[in-house]
Amino acid sequence: MVLPVWWRKRIPRYRFVGALCKDCGRIHYPPRNACPYCGSRNLELVPLPRRGVLESYSIVYSVPGDNRLNAPLPIGLIRLENGVRVVAELTDVVPEKLENGIEVEAVIRRIGEDGETGTILYGVKFRPALGRK
Amino acid sequence: MGRRVAIVGTGHSKFGVRNDVNIPELAYEAIRQALDEAGIEKKDIDLVVTGYVGGWSSEGLAPVVVMEYAGLTGKPAYRIEAACATGSAAIKTAHDAVAAGEADIALVVGVEKMNESPTPTVVEFIGRAGNYFWEFENFGLTFPGYYALYATAYMQKYGATEEDLCKVAVKNHYYASFNPKAQFPRQITLEQCLKSRYIAWPLKLFDCSPITDGAAAVVLASEEIAEKLTDSPVWIEAIGVSSGTSNLSRRPYFTNLPAAKIAAQAAYKKAGIDPENPVKYLDLAEVHDCFTIAEIMAYEDLGFAKPGEGYKLIREEQTYIGGVIPVNLSGGLKAKGHPLAATGISMAVDLTRQLQGRVEKGRQAEIKHGRALAHNIGGTGHYAYVTIYSLSKPRSA
After folding, report:
1. pTM for the complete prediction?
2. Which CATH class is domain A49-133?
3. What number is the ipTM of this complex?
4. B201 contacts in A (CB within 8 Å)?
5. Where are chain A's structural domains?
6. Which residue of B has its CA nearest to A75?
7. Which secondary structure element, helix H or strand E, spans residue B92, and what is its range?
8. Residues near B135 by Cβ (< 8 Å), separated by ≥ 6?
9. Would you identify the CATH topology of the domain B5-117+211-229?
């Protein structure tokens, strides 16, 4: 990837944020510049709650590209405490013990390397929630 | 609005790994058959619409390559793409041109050679069918992975099992065994499916449609021309179209596909079909079983079963011939194969031949109402096309 692409993606990659529409109050993930519901462009990036509930999941065995070394890959569909939904990789899990409805929390983890430049990529993954809120 | 449009000729290549031919040769297998069935010559064609997703195959501009090979150079031409629903989108585009009076006879062809790239490349390419950065780049979620999220949510909410999913595969392989054009014209057992390896839990190898090379074609004609060409035109009675969010995380629920429901409602409304009981109006359906869970969700999205009861239809074998409504008598995407751009057209070809009572013994439905339905989905519910084909002339165009 070229430098401008890395720069453009630095916020969504390293910060777990959504976009709050200051006119209608909806929070969008992935973040965006305009609200698709009310048309407002008055949005700001806000941190998202780190906790949520696992709504669905899969263990992907057949993984393409550089990521294949990480297979099998547990993937979750998570509903955060504020109702916003996120699709993300799960970490620190035993696949057999996964179950819809368990509490999970967001953590920053290494997610791979860019093949061409060797840049280490970090991103948000979810793990079963530890301790109390 | 506009003129009535009918299918007057159909063509279908053998689906499978077709290393024996290149893209125009493969497309021509279907085109030649469709023109012969229609009894027309190349000079009679006013418009050629080519469905092609490409990316994995050598040709960049499939329409011009196919048309030069087929001797159709000079005709109006373009390429249509709507992911796995490309075939239906191509039919819709040609249908609209004929209905509007822009063309009297249109040729629609869909062709794909997915085996020109190695499997990991195809898996990666299809994995991008969604939202690249948010669902693919970060962690490499694959296409089976997307549908697996739906399967997990569905199974946990309604109590469907991996065995129920495999029963869809067993049925579709059973009917494919009577279809010589199918990629896998052979039966499988429930045990074979249940013991196959996981691709994306809970989906196993036998829950997934294959990587396929293939082509299909139909000739569409206006009412006036169609009635001159044939005694048994198959009318395009209604086409319902809808779309879904690119990000799965923006979907309202994960046990059905909203776009498919909207498309079905639109098609039923236009065709005068009671959406509460569509099976009373239909003899059979071809649905988009790219994964077994997709066929079960389709039963519900189309109103063949109530929400949460789709899996019971297959458990009780109600989608075999003789059941409530026979589904995927061609073998479906699962066993007939799924060359993306050819799939929707392949559905049209097979349903036309079914309605005319001329498919192979063992998979011919009983035709009572003279109506059939095609349900073609692009991506994970990103595009949805529901088309009603009919033996009787539609009330309105």
Report:
1. 0.93
2. mainly beta
3. 0.82
4. 58-61, 72, 95
5. 1-48, 49-133
6. B141
7. helix B86-99
8. A87, B141, B146, B247, B248, B249
9. Peroxisomal Thiolase; Chain A, domain 1 (3.40.47)
